[in-house]
């Protein structure tokens, strides 16, 4: 019975892990789809279904928690680039090291909002942190990444801010707006609830499969994997610290959005700044962080964190 209960709690992680294994073993289909904007399509679909799951009264909930949300965004924007620099020092290859650097300026992972929902956390707060961190990335990614690269002995970076902005607007902004609009028009029903429960897991699994197909297993990636583990552990500990003293749903949102950074956006930034080869480590990070995040979501369902009981925010007057 314990094994069955464990499997149910971590079902999402097991599915994603299986898909990642298949994608590494048989990379052809995933690489074909990834070369045809498959990652962007999967991300857009994930944003859309995540927006549909944001509860009514989300804007009122965000207003109530604005101080904590702002503090979390600022702390992550300051500390995560430094963490990325520390982790990158574990990588011997200069090109791969720059890919790890890009993680520090990446926004919250789109899939983290879905993970917050799976963990029964505050999805409105998670969406707010996602949007806020994305806007901060657009503002600070270029100069911060150039400064960190010079500190690592490089010549600095040039980030195509306009290109990144357009991509984020199409992949994140537009699906978010469409999802919020559909949420107001589609009536609640058991079928909608089933779709909202299953669709995020399916899309996350597809996303991981596409990214895993780009991972090439080699000895050179041992140091990269160590650096990525340091970054994941450090960002998770920061998320725990930022959520300390908050009600459980808010603490879960802060933990997962801080601990999961967007590997697809990071790859785009690294490619624009340093060339396509620098984005290699970010495929491996995508597999690691999504499996880690979904596993953490399963744990949070069983062992709540935060100072208060798990109660949803009361509905507000606006959506």
Explain what you see:
- This protein is mainly alpha-helical and 319 residues long.
- It has a single domain, classed as Na+/H+ antiporter like fold (Up-down Bundle).
- Helix content is 76%, strand content 0%.
- The protein has 15 helices and no strands.
- It has helices at 2-9, 11-25, 28-34, 38-53, 58-64, 66-88, 94-103, 110-118, 123-151, 161-185, 190-212, 221-242, 248-259, 263-274, 280-302.
- Helix 4 packs across helix 10 (161-185), helix 7 runs parallel beside helix 12 (221-242) and helix 8 crosses helix 11 (190-212).
- The longest helix has 29 residues, at 123-151.
- The radius of gyration is 19 Å and the shape is globular.
- The termini are far apart.
- Mean pLDDT is 81; it is low at 308-319.
Q: Report the CATH C-level class.
A: Mainly Alpha
Distance between the first and last residues' Cα: 41 Å
As for the number of domains, it is 1
What is the beta-strand fraction?
under 5%
Radius of gyration: 19 Å
What is the 3D shape? globular
Q: Mind telling me which CATH architecture this is?
A: Up-down Bundle
Name the assembly state: single chain
Query: What is the helix fraction of residues, given as a range?
Result: over 70%
Q: How many distinct helices?
A: 15
Count the strands? 0
Low-confidence stretches: 308-319
Average pLDDT across residues? 81
CATH level 3 topology = Na+/H+ antiporter like fold
**In this structure, how is the largest beta sheet organized?**
none
Order of helices and strands: HHHHHHHHHHHHHHH
Main structural class: mainly alpha
